[in-house]
């Protein structure tokens, strides 16, 4: 007896069926039409027009093919959820999508959903949607968020107010959050607008991804971190990550104080980072990315450059500003984190020219990148290198991610979280430690506790404000690994804790691609044991499995 096939009912204005992925072009057209009418919807592959579930063959490339078709032929870009589902005895592909950047074009044509049809949009409707998208009244940042005024981080707001008052651009007498945020036009009653939430709430609205790569290719990363929070705190985090990763050189000009020079000017770094947060397409959900390569450093955001314009036009000419997020950029102007005269790129270029640092700007339909080249100029060829950071590496030791110290043998020093003072203790070129300000050097390699620093004259390691150097030609490892006293480099890539953080990030990426993955499949993709996967998942509060067995799915909870 033939088994009756399952049915999903009839198509609607927000629900579309395709018999198979052989109808990819028609599917992309339907997605655009539904988005232009309703802003969200669902589409199934493996279901006939009448709702009958016929299923289809699904292999490793099926979901990727759907994702690429949407990515290549739908504008503006969206980031749908694409998963494999089991309905009865049949396998289907479900695409769930949403977006508020209407009008959307599929294969360069705007369409709109009417009943279960995808009709070409009339010109007046298309022009109206364009005006709405470009008008602040309809923009994402001016819409009410899900956060209330009570959800803000008071420390972030207070720091912002102090800075804005110091530069003379805000003169509020009352510093109560409700009054301040209302005067800044970031509220709707007790609710924050999206702009206010992005600026002052530590939430998942903003995401920062930072990584270091072993070469100039995105092949092997030696460090990867993912953080969420407010724009202001993530911007500081990104700048500090670059400061800690890049090299500094020391120059002596005959004075008592030495001059420390970064390979990339700090003003340019800060400008590029804050512009990335201020001009990105926040509603896309994409991260601001900081990537450290061997020969260059890149800062990327999801806001594409305006059509018909180039970065060179804003550097060489006087241009009016084009603001993707005018509310956010205005607030950042008050604190002097950003200027409002379209001079950001010019300031970056001028600072780099003055420092002899090469910088490039480039973008595509998906985003914009600033690339700083490292070690530019002859002065770096014979430079004495140091490291600077908020967590300084002590003499003969290295600070790990959690602030503890690891000595050259990998053991932990009880001097947890101490910092090497930037003024008063100087390390000379032979690797010995100066005691001019009262610090004591122990000739047999013991620790001096007078001011929290350590000196080891026998270990031949000198740390000039946060780096390790040794006299037998070993190299400082920029990925938070330890330099071996025999001159070899450790390939352990940080501590065990750091490896776990890398695996956590990889697991999140895998589950975003397919929330039906089993622990066995995750273990196979990461080349680790199932037991290790289980241990890591157990420690991830943001990850939860809903349901049971194969009918369940992973859910990533907002932090």
Task: List the SSEs and their pairings.
Elements lengths: L14 E4 L5 H15 L1 E6 L16 H12 E2 L5 E7 L2 E9 L6 E2 L2 E6 L2 E4 L2 H12 L9 E5 L5 H13 L10 H7 L3 E2 L2 E3 H7 L5 E8 L7 E9 L1 H15 L2 E4 L7 E4 L3 H14 L8 E5 L3 E6 L9 H6 L9 H9 L9 H12 L3 E5 L4 E6 L11 E2 L10 E3 L5 E3 L4 E2 L47 E2 L6 E2 L25 H18 L5 H8 L3 H9 L4 E4 L6 E4 L3
Parallel strand pairs: 1-2, 12-16
Antiparallel strand pairs: 2-5, 3-6, 4-5, 6-7, 7-8, 9-11, 10-11, 12-13, 14-15, 14-20, 16-17, 17-19, 18-19, 21-22, 22-23, 24-25, 26-27
Count of beta strands: 27
Examine the coordinates and then state which fold CATH places here, giving the name of the CATH topology of the largest domain. Heat Shock Protein 90
What fraction strand?
Answer: 15-25%
What's the CATH C level of the largest domain?
A: Alpha Beta
Radius of gyration: 27 Å
| General shape | globular
Task: Count every helix, treating DSSP H or I runs of 4 or more residues as helices.
Answer: 14
Query: Unreliable runs, pLDDT <50, ≥5 residues?
Result: 389-495
**How far is the first residue's CA from the last residue's CA?**
51 Å
User: For the largest beta sheet, what order do the strands appear in spatially?
Assistant: 13-12-16-17-19-18
Number of domains: 5
Mean pLDDT rating:
78
Range of helix content:
25-40%
